[in-house]
Structure formats: C-alpha cells, structure tokens
Amino acid sequence: MNSGPKRLLQRMIRGLNTTREFSGKKQEITVLHAWDKQLPFARLILAGLGDTKAVTAPLLLRTAGAAIRRAAKIGCRSVGIWLPANNLKSLGLAGQAEAIAEGVLVGSYNFDNYKAQSSENANRPLKEVRIAIEKGRLKESVAAVRAGERIAGAVNYARDIANEPGNVVYPHKLAEAATRLGRELRLRVRVWDRRKLAKEGFGGLLAVGGGSEREPRFIRIDYAPRGARAGSRPLVFVGKAITFDSGGISIKPSDKMDEMKFDKCGGVAVLGAMRAIAALKLPVPVVGLISAAENMPSATSYRPGDIVTTYSGTTIEVLNTDAEGRIVLGDALAYAKRLKPQAIIDLATLTGACVVALGPFAAGLFSNNDKLSGRVRAAGEMTGDRVWPFPLWDDYHEMIKSPVADIKNTGGRYGGAITAAAFLQKFVGDVPWVHLDIAGTAWTTEEKPHLARGGTAFGVRLLVELLRSWAPL
After folding, report:
1. FRET partner for 447 with CA separation of 20 to 30 A, picked from 144, 197, 318, 430?
2. Cβ contact 310:330 at 8 Å
3. pLDDT confidence of residue 35
C-alpha cells in the first residue's frame, strides 16, 4: 500500500479510536466500508489483540479465526491479511505466520455436510486468503504458513470425524478412516476385529462393545520417521473412542444424549495428531492406539455386577456400565506398556466430574511423572489447548478397591475425575504417563467468534507441539 492510501487508512482508524468505536481490545472485531477510491479494498476488518506485549500464538490464532469468520458472514470472497510484525516481536514473524494460517483455516471451518444447499443458506466459502509478508523474509514465512496449514488441516480432519453422528461413524468406520489415513501418509495401520480381540484377551473392550451389533475395534497406527534407529522407543498416544455412548444398561438421561457422538473425541484426536505428525515429518517415532466401541443396552450388554478380565489380567468389578471409557482404555494402556515406550499420553472424554471442576476452559491432567507433566502443560500453553493438574494420592487408589475383584470401575461421587485416573494408572505401572480428561473441551455446543459449534479437536495441537520440541525424559 503506497503512502497516500496508508495515511488515509491511519486517519480512519484514529477516527474510530476517537469515537470509541474500536479500542483494539482482545478479539474485538470492527468492519469498515471503504469510502475512498484510493483504498485498494471494499471493506476493512479491524481485529483487536489488546496489549501487544501480552499477545500469544493462541490469541493470534483465535483473533485470525474470528476475523475470517466475520469476513465469510458478510460475504467476502477474497481476503488479505497484514501481519502486525513490528508490534509482536515476542512471537517472531514465523510464529505470527503459522498462527494466522492456522486461525484462518480453523476459523473458516463449518460442518454442514447434511444441510440442503438452497440459495438462502448456501455456504459461500472464501475463494482465497492472502497473507502480506515483510520483504526479504518470504522463505521463513512460507515455511511457517505451510506448517500452519498442515496442523490446521489435521485439526479440521479430526473435527470432521468428531462431528459425524453415530450412525455414520462407528468402530468399523473409524478403523476404515485410520486405514485410509495410513495409505495417504504411509503409516502402518493394524486393526483388531472381534475375533482377534478375543484371541488376544482384550476383555475390557469386548465387554463394553458387547451390547452393540457394531463390533468393537482396536486400532494401532505406527509412524516411523526416516532416519530413526531400528528399535527406537516410541511415544504412545492412546485415545478413547466410544462412537456413541448411551450408558449401556446404566442408561443416560435422554437430555443431551445426542452429544454422546462426541465420546469418540479422544480417539479422533489421536487420528488428527498422527496425521499432522506424519505431514510435518517430525523426527520422533510415535504409535497411536485407539480403543473403539459403541456402548449400547441389549441382551448381550455387560451388566452392573459383572467381573471383567482385561488384557493385562487385571479384573474389574463393574458397578456402572456408563463408566465404560476407563475400561476400554485399560486394555489399550496395558498394550501400550508392552511396547516399552518413552512415555504414554492418553486422551479421553472421561468424566463429567472434570467438567464440573474446570468447565470448558481446560482439560484435566493426571500424571505419574512431573517432568512429562510439565512438558504437556507447556505445550498446552503454547497452543491454547490448556490443561490443569490434579493430584493422584494413594487415598484415591483406596477408593477404587473392590471386595470381589482387583479394582472397581467407579469410586463413587466424590473426586470422580481423580478416581477415574487412579483406575487408569493401574494399567501403566512405572512408565511415564499423562492422562488428559478432555470431557469439557472436546466439543462446544455454541458457536464461538473463532470456532463453529461441534468438535474442537482439542489435543491435536498440544500433541504436535509436544513432539516438535521433544527430548528424551
């Protein structure tokens, strides 16, 4: 933009500040219509960032997403974005470019696959978004934008699967999605069907999935980067994927049961993370494990009072069939332990108790290793997938002891998120481990300025950031 239009634009913005129509506070969005032919645009969207010294990558991402959603709603087809490089030196130009690229793609996402595209509600997507880059710094900025595109692509991929209803995505279909991903990105994918699960002793997964005609699946995805030494110990990501959770015999109330299609979001986050890790060609070997089942009531459902023998041989007294996620994760965590990994991180929409404790603003973090826990927390702050730690004292382990089995699948009303994590810890032993209870963050029922309603793919960016800066514990 040459000096004439630039001065004109500066006067317009000063006028807004004077009339208090735009203050620049966080995520404030104002639309200006160009009134002078000197200006090379029809409309200008001003997006506030607040105190420039306090701007983070997550804030920049959300702000870019909010601006792009506003642009789409007012009918813009082509958008140009100027990076505020000089004012955000703490992020660096590459950090800004990556965050904005992610924000644009995440913000422009909508799940409307099943809506009739009439002339009134037809989705008119943006045709192009251009990012203006400082002269002489194109190479590093383009690389950052490409990285942002790959990460956001993985996030939206995970959101697509999360948003599909239970009659479209069920365990077999989730396994097919993983297989397609493997073919696309040259990942090794293995799937355990009911017969193989029975042969190898996945008693927890078989019990939870036993009430549905749609049989359970266990999915393993291996990423082995070029140059990795043979036998290198991997990181293992484990995801709970209950493709629909009715509660089983301990059936849930009907209100909001439709949201239980999102009970697969832990497993879906693992899929999304594996997609991003492979696309970015990160140098750390990773194994993704997904326990997939549909929890339904029927004559073949597992029952309160049943005793289930898991993959590790640990026995579980079932007190509530709606506490099923920890049971399918138990099998997956025990399998993960046998891989002798550097660390295990599991993600699960596990407990309503965690939602009560933290609301929709952070996931609960539970761990047996302070160093790993600190890294996961730092990755959460860097990406906006925030997590908050809870204790795992011996007192909570006492609450899940059973008089008739090794453990019971619920510790009662109090400390519910913690006793669920204590249950999971039984299956990992001394392997460095983090459990993320994402029940409050995995989906949103209301549209946000930067985000469409539905699945959020919480955890994908966190896991990618953890891998990008990974060093042995």
Report:
1. 144
2. yes
3. 61
pLDDT for 1 beyond 60: no
Spatial separation of the C-alpha atoms in residues 358 and 461, rounded to whole Å? 20
Q: Give the amino acid at 417.
A: A
Mean pLDDT of the chain: 91
- Calculate what percentage of the chain has a pLDDT beyond 70: 89
Q: Decide: helix, strand or coil at residue 237.
A: strand
- How many CA atoms lie within 13 Å of 183's alpha carbon, on the beta-carbon side? 5
User: In angstroms, rounded to a whole number, what is the distance separating the alpha carbons of residues 428 and 85?
Assistant: 45
Give the span between the Cα atoms of 31 and 4, in whole angstroms: 21
Task: Give the Cβ contact number of residue 330 at 10 Å.
Answer: 28
Q: How far is CA 433 from each of CA 5, 334, 374, 424, 455, rounded to the nearest angstrom?
A: 56, 12, 12, 10, 25
- Asked if 243 and 169 count as a contact pair (C-beta separation under 8 A), the reply is yes
The mean pLDDT value for 114-137 works out to 71
Domain boundaries, the chain: 3-150, 169-468
More confident residue, 228 or 166: 166
Phi-psi region of 368 (alpha: psi -120 to 50; beta: other; left: phi over 0): alpha
User: DSSP code of 448?
Assistant: B
Overall average pLDDT of the 64-93 stretch: 81
Burial of 123 (0-12, 13-18, 19+ CB in 10 A): exposed
169-468 under CATH 3.10.450.50, yes or no: no
pLDDT at 232: 84
The band of 24, judged by pLDDT with boundaries at 50, 70 and 90, is confident
Residue positions annotated with a catalytic role: 252, 326
121, pLDDT greater than 50 = no
Instruction: Give bridge partners of residue 244 from the DSSP assignment.
Output: 294
> Whole-angstrom Cα distance, residue 328 to residue 413?
21
**Gap between the Cα atoms of 420 and 241, Å rounded:** 16
pLDDT of residue 430: 96
Q: What are phi and psi of 61, to 5 degrees?
A: -60, -50
Report the pLDDT value the prediction gives residue 85, as an integer from 0 to 100: 57
* 155 contacts 461 by C-beta, under 8 angstroms: yes
Task: Find the largest Cα–Cα distance for the chain.
Answer: 82
